[in-house]
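Anyone opening a protein record will find just a pair of labelled lines. The record below illustrates this layout.
***
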Amino acid sequence: MKADRGAIARAVAKPPADLRLLLLHGPDEAGSRALADSYAAAFGDAERLDLSPQDLRGDPARLSDEAASISMFGGRTLIRVFGIGEESLAAVQALLDGPAAGNPVVALAGALSRTSKLLKLVEGHPLALGFASYVPDARDFAALVGNLAREAGLAAPREVVQRIANIANGDRAVAQGEVEKLVLYLDAAPDRVRNVEPEHVAALSADIAESDMDRLVNGVTSGRPADVAEQLTRLRSEGAAGIMLLRAVLRRFYLLADLRAEVERGSSAESVIAGRGKAIFWKDKGVLTAAVARWQGSHIASALSRLLAAERAIKSSGSAGDILAESALLDLARRAQRVR
């Protein structure tokens, strides 16, 4: 089944007993992760089992077997699959067709195309629920930041909320991190509300100039590796973390995937961009039109895989850290340069 906002809010707060699979997808990866965390919290201290798409591709029966298994401790096990895609179609089909599945499964994917067989299976099955998370627009994102602050015990005026929203640049995870830093700095809590002043944000935030980040993103998608190298050097000196840079570029490629899908159904790049109206900032329309024309759907999918793999690698123990992010971004810029 396809969930709307109300249905997904109810499902993560009180998971239906017969729900076998919750599929969270869409361009707002941080939003999907937040929903997955809320879903997990609903199961309390249940065991966790993480499976990869590679696990499921190599053994399509494993997902249904794990979902039907009984924990050695007698409780339920929450099964999580990160980065799921079409390679797991057989595994999901087996899960939904199986005679029993006492352990719930939550799967996270990036942007899935409207022709995705996995998405069609989930949205058409009564034992599965799918929800797409989209990056909120500027107004909605500022409201989200305000809610995060209030729930954490911060009394923030509008200008402070907007400053945090600008810093996060639409990334929910970055916004959450900024709020958490302020909570620690001010010793705040839901029952111990603290006032936030602009100087507090200035003292703690990793505020990166928007123009620098925009030039980086545009340099990657437009195939200008020299510009990307220059912006990486500047952003590094300003304290920008590699994951922050990856996510900024990821958001652009998720948008490109959505736009390119319309182009490949027969629309022109210009008409697709124009059709989004004010949802696309006027300054970005020219560079986005060129990028949509340049990047084919298969190339965008490959770029998303490269970026997500770099983020996973950075998070692993003993990784090369921000160097991995810079390498991935330069590599993508060079790929774009070759198809100009």
